[in-house]
Specification:
The structure holds 3 protein chains of 3 kinds. By secondary structure, chain B is mainly alpha-helical. Helix content of chain B is 70%, strand content 4%. Chain B has helices at residues 2-6, 10-26, 43-50, 52-66, 74-91, 98-125, 130-148, 159-166, 174-192, 195-204, 206-212, 216-242, 254-264, 276-295, 303-318, 320-334; strands at residues 34-36, 39-41, 154-155, 168-169, 172-173, 244-245. A two-stranded antiparallel sheet of chain B has the order 1-2. Chain B has a two-stranded antiparallel sheet with strand order 3-6. A two-stranded antiparallel ribbon of chain B has the order 4-5. In chain B, helix 5 (74-91) runs antiparallel to helix 6 (98-125). In chain C, 34% of the residues lie in helices and 24% in strands. Chain C has helices at 49-56, 79-84, 102-107, 120-133, 149-162, 179-194, 206-212, 235-243, 303-311, 333-338, 348-351, 359-371, 379-393, 409-421, 439-454, 466-472, 495-504; strands at residues 11-20, 23-33, 38-42, 64-69, 72-74, 87-90, 113-114, 117-118, 167-171, 198-202, 215-220, 223-229, 269-276, 280-287, 292-296, 318-323, 326-328, 341-344, 427-431, 458-462, 475-480, 483-489. Chain C folds into 3 domains: 11-243, P-loop containing nucleotide triphosphate hydrolases (Rossmann fold), CATH 3.40.50; 248-340 and 426-511, P-loop containing nucleotide triphosphate hydrolases (Rossmann fold, 3-Layer(aba) Sandwich); 355-424, no CATH class. The chains are: A mainly alpha, B mainly alpha, C alpha/beta.
Chain lengths: 339, 348, 511
């Protein structure tokens, strides 16, 4: 029995060695740290510039205003981790939102409406998954079909906005749990719980690890005997479910359902996820990173409104940031491939 | 007969003819054309005019898709070109001057040419996935357009500019002539020169093309630049129609319509051989579909549902699995043994 | 190392037949694998090695014959079936997930769980344990992608241990390893063998075969040639079994190899110290006008890799080129084309034909690419060129508007040849131009090459069929294990001499 151990190179010096171990273990965390650094830099910069930016009220409102986006981003992370994409989330959010408003206005009890919303989101996700998995349709096209479908269905439900007057739903948004100047709403709690649940699933369940494996190398995952088909389908269903849930949250946030909601929101979601350090090619990324990405988005929106500038700047800045991230990701990939 | 059916334009043409037939049956007035003050009027004329922006964008999209790429930014580019040219006209002391109008149009198109070239740079040189590369401009482009117009919807009064979308020549809409010109120019460039074949080669087999000495980088770059130029002209037409630069509404979702038109026309999303004629048919089909939906009284906002259905049907038809399924049924009916290894390579 | 013939073999494959459209890939092949042995499967391209492996690992269904594993008859409907039967495979591409940690890769799908939740500490400990049994001690938390291919391979092998395999299939495991890593791998293999695992090993590195094998099975053209004990099979016999004899119906070309070449003049191409790290050791190569230089060697010796460097398809990181006496920079195919070098790849389908384009479009592609997109070749010009070459090479069917992918392999190869000849090159590189095509087409192509070289075209010719090489080339460069080991003048030698040369030349210099 041979006992020649195989060790990886040791760099000279203890610190360099520990750094190397860290990089080898946690390379996929680096983009997340980059996003965090950007977020902190923005906070600091805004505080220095405006002087009154970092108030408990404003930071709390970050979560309040973007809870829906946070939930969407979690769902999108699952799909992108498998190497796919879901363009339907904005339209599904609108569809479930307007349907919620309509059903409530017709007297259907809240306890029935909310599950219906979440299930319809899951249903559209399932449709997309079937197209991708069983008919070899590219995720882009399949989710495009889903987007068209959901948007059209939203208008079928109603051509104009419908107010939500149900006390249970409104309670989700209007209640504030306060500690000093900080507050959090039930919608915020829901969003954070979703993030937590997703993080635990991705880290501690076989399903979650299969998601990463598929994103890393789907062929290998299949050859290793992992349930690839089932997992990919579930990823899209999760994305749809999150979109449905986000619809509830958004309806609570705006107090109404509106079929034109969420136009372009899928792009914001993708941008947040990518900025948060998830690679579009799949297999690398964390929901915590996506959360940071959402906060980056929210902060940019906040800074822009503080500046009194037009909201159009938000999309431009996000676009530029996304570009930088993608180009840098590309360089990292090419460099690591040359090894 | 089999030859006709197998021609790749057969199904697109059949679909369009069927659509026209359905329309004519439900409203016999559909095909009728009246003349008033030397101008033609009618549903068909409307389709010819309204399809012009989509035609331009879809032509560019065809070339880009042929290189195995995609251009999601065309809608945003339309907004940009409209914003740029209208801003120039608005700022000019003489908006009726033809020269000013031509300069404004030139500036708008030049801007989108540059933006298209930027897309091409990202894809051809940096090697970024086309979806993401063009997604950036899709996000940022409308913002840029809003910046150009200062956040407002710029409106102008300019007869020469208005003429493009609303005027007519020999009774037919000027916009239609623009469509024809675009199709003619693109067809000439792609088929009279070797560009079309080389582009197809790059899309069908990038590696073999590289080894054969084809300059793939330049070809891909050029495809995106061309898409940018065409989107620019489309944006001019759109803003001419409403005499305003509406950065949020210009070309909204047109990229999706364009992709659909290209796919309907028989060009595969996987790249390679493309058909300009197919795209033209696809554009008219979509425009007719939209007209049908409006006529049926369906609110235009709901039309995406029909589009979704069309997308699903088209991709299913193009999907190998469905075709294999039909083939299997066909074979079972004619009782011949089928091969079970469709992609088997020669053993090594 | 016991090979008791009374012990029942772990795997028995009898009469295995697999038919692909138009090709009989395996023809009633028998194969036996015993516990505690390293059994190497050998054969050239098209021999059926990888098809047999894929039948065993459940990738391909079989059309005839039986597979018995541990005494039980089995039908594999997929890779999962084979895995359940105890057969684990480590492929050449190392099918693991480089974005996950080492430990996770070892245990993926079998992680230690408490109440449904993965216990990472325990999982990594298990992974460490499995790696330890192979003598591998690395940080299981590190990313798999941060390790060399050699280490990744060992991780793949330890994963096979986790799934409790009785049969380990190693498909070309040493292609990317250096000497030290190969030694390490072989130590692990021998250890596993001593523990009773049956190991099926596929490689074409001749020296390695003898280092590690107990038995050798040779396939040729889909048929079983024989099963031998490694200690009883000489190198020469092994190579002869693999290469075999092809019918010689081109006696008329025997003069070609004797043609006198003026080697005093400036060579058309000179490569000096050209190499690429990890792919080809630096080599020198000269090719003269009107000369056919053959490159001989077994699969994996580096012939294709070398000519790809010469063409600029891959970038050399050492050495330089001279074309017609003047310095030349060849880093991309365009550079080579500008210097009038042409290259016909051995991988027709992926690197040669543009399948959906017509025969005519494929033929003029080379000229068109060089002219640029603006100056389109006129229809009349195209017709003239296309019909000239289609007649000269006898391309069938004679319809220039047919999509090239609908042609037979032989005719596709002719179309490729036509494409390159139409560009009037000074040097043409032909990599396995006669592989997988019918006898008639083979003869046509060889005749054409002989004619053209007589007219002054310089040719580099690679073929696994040594008869062809000796027939056409005046000079044969021999390669083995990624280096040139010598040169032979073809006029004086036979196939056996080349085989001998490959087997024994430079033996002493092998460290």
């Amino acid at each position: 029995m041979t006992s020649t151990p195989i060790r990886t190179e040791q760099a000279s010096g203890a610190f360099a060695a520990r750094l190397r171990v860290f990089v080898n273990r946690r390379a996929s965390w680096i983009p997340v740290f980059a996003a965090l650094a950007i977020l902190i830099a923005m906070f600091v910069g805004a505080q220095l510039y405006f002087g009154n930016f970092l108030t408990p009220r404003l930071v709390s409102s970050l979560l309040l205003d973007n809870a829906y986006l946070l939930i969407l981003a979690v769902g999108m992370t699952f799909v992108i981790l498998t190497g796919g994409i879901d363009l339907s989330v904005g339209s599904v959010l609108a569809f479930t939102g307007i349907m919620c408003a309509r059903l409530l206005s017709e007297g259907v009890p809240t306890g029935v409406v909310i599950p219906i919303m979440i299930l319809s989101g899951a249903g559209i996700g399932l449709l997309i998954a079937v197209l991708v998995q069983f008919f070899d349709v590219q995720p882009f096209i399949a989710s495009l079909a889903g987007m068209f479908l959901a948007r059209g269905l939203a208008f079928v439900v109603s051509l104009s906005s419908i107010k939500v007057e149900d006390p249970a739903i409104l309670w989700l948004q209007s209640t504030r749990f306060q500690v000093g100047g900080w507050y959090i709403t039930p919608t915020g709690i829901i969003a954070l719980l979703v993030v937590l649940a997703a993080a635990l699933v991705l880290q501690f369940t076989r399903f979650g690890r299969t998601i990463y494996a598929i994103g890393g190398n789907e062929q290998s995952a299949r050859l290793m005997g992992l349930p690839v088909v089932r997992t990919k389908i579930l990823a899209y269903v999760i994305s749809g479910t999150c979109a449905g849930l986000a619809g509830v949250v958004f309806a609570a946030y705006t107090g109404s359902g509106y079929p034109l909601n969420g136009v372009g929101t899928e792009l914001d979601t993708i941008a947040a996820v990518v900025i948060g350090g998830t690679l579009l090619t799949g297999g690398s990324g964390y929901v915590l990173g996506s959360m940071i990405g959402v906060f980056v988005y929210g902060t940019i929106k906040g800074v822009i409104s503080f500046l009194g500038a037009e909201q159009s700047w938000t999309r431009i800045t996000i676009g530029v940031l996304l570009l930088i991230f993608v180009v840098v990701q590309r360089f990292i990939i090419t460099r690591s491939r040359r090894r | 007969m089999k030859r006709v059916v197998k021609h790749r334009l057969f199904w697109p043409i059949a679909a369009l003819v069927a659509l026209v037939a359905v329309n004519t049956i439900s409203r016999p007035a559909f095909l009728s054309v009246t003349v008033q003050d030397g101008q033609f009027y009618g549903s068909v004329i409307d389709i010819l005019r309204n399809s012009a922006p989509l035609m331009l964008v879809a032509l560019g999209m065809t070339i880009v898709i042929s290189t195995r790429g995609i251009d999601l930014s065309v809608g945003a580019l339309m907004a940009v070109s409209g914003a740029v040219s209208l801003t120039i006209i608005e700022a000019s002391p003489d908006p009726e001057n033809l020269g000013v109008v031509l300069v404004a149009i030139g500036a708008g198109v030049l801007t989108t040419l540059f933006l298209g070239a930027w897309n091409g740079f990202l894809v051809a040189v940096l090697g970024i996935q086309p979806i993401i590369a063009t997604l950036v401009l899709m996000l940022a482009g409308r913002g840029i357009a809003l910046l150009v117009t200062g956040g407002f919807i710029t409106t102008i009064n300019s007869t020469p500019y208005q003429f493009m979308a609303q005027g007519s020549v020999f009774g037919l809409p000027f916009a239609f002539y623009v469509s024809i010109a675009a199709v003619a120019i693109v067809a000439l460039v792609e088929r009279r020169t070797a560009l079309g074949v080389l582009t197809e080669a790059v899309g069908i087999n990038p590696e073999a093309s590289r080894l054969a000495g084809v300059r793939s980088r330049g070809i891909v770059w050029g495809a995106y630049a061309a898409s940018g130029v065409l989107a620019g002209f489309a944006g001019i037409l759109y803003s001419s129609n409403i005499m305003a630069a509406d950065a949020n509404a210009a070309g909204l979702y047109i990229e999706l319509d364009a992709i659909l038109a290209v796919v309907l026309g028989g060009t595969s999303l996987a790249g390679g051989k493309f058909s300009l004629a197919g795209t033209v048919i696809g554009v008219f089909t979509i425009q007719t579909l939209k007209s049908t939906i409006t006529f049926l009284g369906v609110p235009p906002a709901v039309s995406p549902v029909f589009m979704a259905a069309v997308v699903i049907v088209v991709v299913l038809v193009q999907s190998r699995r469905v075709r294999e399924g039909f083939a299997r049924i066909g074979k079972a009916l004619s009782r011949t043994p089928s091969q079970t290894r469709p992609d088997a390579e020669v053993a090594s | 190392m016991p090979t008791d013939t009374e012990v029942q073999p772990v795997v028995e494959m009898r009469g295995i037949t697999i038919q692909f459209p138009g090709v009989l890939a395996l023809d009633a092949v028998d194969f036996t694998l015993r516990a505690g042995e390293v059994h190497t499967l050998m054969g050239e391209n098209g021999a059926g090695k990888s098809t047999l492996i894929k039948a065993l690992t459940g990738v391909y269904p079989i059309d005839g014959g039986t597979i018995t594993v541990a005494g039980e008859s089995r039908i594999f409907r997929g890779t999962a079936d084979a895995q359940t039967a105890g057969i684990s495979t480590v492929y050449q591409e190392i099918n693991l997930c480089t974005n996950l940690s080492v430990g996770e890769n070892v245990m993926l799908g079998h992680e230690v769980r408490t109440l449904g939740r993965i216990d990472w500490r325990a999982t990594h400990r298990e992974a460490e344990r499995y790696l330890e049994t192979l003598g591998v001690r690395i940080d299981t938390h590190s990313l798999l992608g941060s390790h060399s291919i050699a280490v990744q391979q060992l991780v793949a092998i330890s994963r096979a241990m986790v799934t409790d395999c009785t049969v380990l299939v190693l498909d070309e495991p040493t292609s990317s390893l250096d000497r030290g890593e190969v030694d390490q791998l072989f130590r692990v293999i021998r250890d596993l063998r001593d523990r009773g695992v049956a190991i099926l090993f596929v490689t074409h590195f001749l020296d390695q075969v003898y280092e590690v094998s107990d038995r050798i099975t040779v396939l040729r053209n889909g048929k079983l040639v024989g099963e031998y004990a490694a200690s009883e099979l000489s190198r020469g016999d092994l190579i002869a079994h693999m290469i075999g004899r092809a019918l010689d119906d081109l006696a008329a070309l025997s003069d070609t190899s004797r043609r006198q070449i003026d080697r005093e003049s400036v060579p058309v191409l000179r490569a000096i110290g050209v190499g690429r790290k990890g792919v080809i050791e630096p080599v020198d190569l000269d090719v003269f006008e009107g000369e056919v230089v053959g490159i001989a060697g077994l699969l994996g010796s580096g012939r294709t890799e070398l000519v790809r460097l010469v063409y600029g398809a891959d970038r050399a990181d050492s050495g330089r080129f001279e074309v017609d006496g003047g310095p030349a920079r060849i880093t991309t195919p365009r550079n080579a084309i500008d210097h009038r070098i042409a290259f016909s790849s051995e991988n027709r389908r992926e690197e040669g034909i543009i399948g959906d384009l017509t025969v005519a479009e494929n033929i003029v592609l080379g000229i068109q690419a060089r002219r640029g997109w603006l100056r389109k070749i006129s229809h009349s010009e195209q017709s003239a060129i296309v019909s000239e070459y289609m007649t000269a090479l006898d391309v069938r069917p004679a319809d220039p508007n047919r999509a090239v992918r609908n042609l037979s392999g032989g005719n596709q190869q002719k179309v490729l040849l036509a494409r390159w000849l139409a560009t009037a090159p000074e040097l043409i590189i032909l990599d396995e131009p006669t592989r997988g095509i019918d006898v008639g087409a083979k003869a046509d192509i060889q005749r054409k090459v002989a004619d053209l070289s007589a007219q002054g075209l310089a040719v580099i010719f690679i073929s696994s069929e040594l008869e062809e090489v000796l027939r056409l080339a005046q000079r044969v460069v021999v390669m083995r294990d990624r280096r040139i080991i010598g040169e032979l003048t073809s006029a004086d030698i036979e196939v056996d001499d080349v085989i001998d040369f490959i087997a024994h030349q430079g033996q002493e210099s092998m460290a």
